[in-house]
Specification:
Elements lengths: L1 H20 L2 H13 L6 H10 L6 E2 L1 H6 L11 E6 L7 E8 L16 H10 L5 E3 L10 E4 L4 E4 L6 H28 L13 H14 L17 H35 L5 H5 L10
Helix pairs in contact: 1-3, 1-8, 2-7, 5-6, 6-7, 6-8, 7-8
Amino acid sequence: MAEDFVKQLYDFVDGSVRHHLESPDNLKEFLTYLAGMRTDVSMRNKLLVYGYNPRATIIRTREAWEKDGFTILDEGAMIYNIQQVPREKGHYTERVMYDVSSTDMQPEAFEHFPNAGFFAERLLMYPPCPVRFSDNPLVDNRRASYNPEKGIIEVTGGFKSEEHVCYGLLREFSHFYLHENEMRMIKKEGKDASVEYNRDRHGIESQAISFAVCTRYGIEPPKLDVVHPPEGRPQDLMKILEGMDYSLQKISKLIDEGGMQQKRFLGQGNAVNPTGERGYQPRDSIQA
């Protein structure tokens, strides 16, 4: 019986992957949920959580909540996840979780930025790799572009607004982390690591990550023009969502930790601003 239930959970995931990718509206709803999810679980389990509660943000087991002094108030709001059976490779079982809304804990709020200018400056102060500004035109007339060979993000003029700066930087941050994730998976699977990164193949992810990050921090999100789902089996499509989630978590952590480091650098702590150590020079203003 337990194995049948786990199979039902897997079947639900397979059936929902394409649904979330098949139209901009479905993707927007899923990304809005993903932007608020704070628990770092697998994408498969995030899909399951979304099926149970699309407004869930922090999920933990009963034992974990009670260990920290919180009480489950809604016993019927169970959320099932899949976990591997310890020391039994290939065998999985279900795990019961509860969202923070089902407890007596007050949920935390994300940091929101007053406008796109503040947000763009934060992005420029704490990039995942060096950012080089130049007056030279970029490939395909892009205003910002991640160069996987050089490991840098190149930026040129021509941005129409602060929002354009945000979207451009987030798109290229996404490509940086998508490339990093791709190399990590290739290494894990023992495949040829000399494969060239194809940014066109990751267009859905880069758009989706930008939308989700902006939603997370209160910035007007860019338009999603994804209309047709990519081809492939559910297992293949899952890799798109996994890459998307990996990059979203990395960018969000970068922004959150950047804010903490900035406060310490301004005298609210003893830590040293890491950007100075890495040689990145923050811009005084995005208009500079």
